[in-house]
Amino acid sequence: MDNNLLIVAVVFALLLAGFLAWLLIRQRRQQKAIDKKNAPGNLPADPGNIGSRQLQLQAYERLILLTDRIALPNLIQRVNQPGLSARELQSLLTHSIRQEFEHNITQQIYVSPESWAAVRNYKDQNTLIINQVGSFLPAEATANDLCRQLLDLLVQNPKASLQDVVSEALSYEAKKLL
Fold it and tell me: Which class for 162: exposed (0-12), middle (13-18), buried (19 or more C-beta within 10 A)?
């Protein structure tokens, strides 16, 4: 039964990764079409646009940092404390993800809706993985048991983490602004 739930969580994560990859590919195709339409040198310079571009670049920068901070290995390393139970660590991990996300929530006004959706989905995916893996552990499990299970999941299923896909999509969007 526990393996079935883990498989469902992994399948969900893979479907989410596929959806985000599809969004990235679609976005790149749209950008190529726009680039062909607007040949270099044909766009007038807009000095008022420089400030907003800087804000957008900073937003993408902060969201890339967010994706790194809520990546499960980095989060575990930062939040894990000796002597915690698995439930306590589960709570700390999900609380930390929520805090990091809420701290950066205003960045959504500077980035594309697709980029913000990717970041939100990544946050939701990591929270789901933590809660799913935590639910499989016995009540007396330690924080080390939870850490081991989470890291084992990521090693066995590298596509379960969307960090690279989301970071690449954010980076691509930021480079379009340059």
Answer: buried
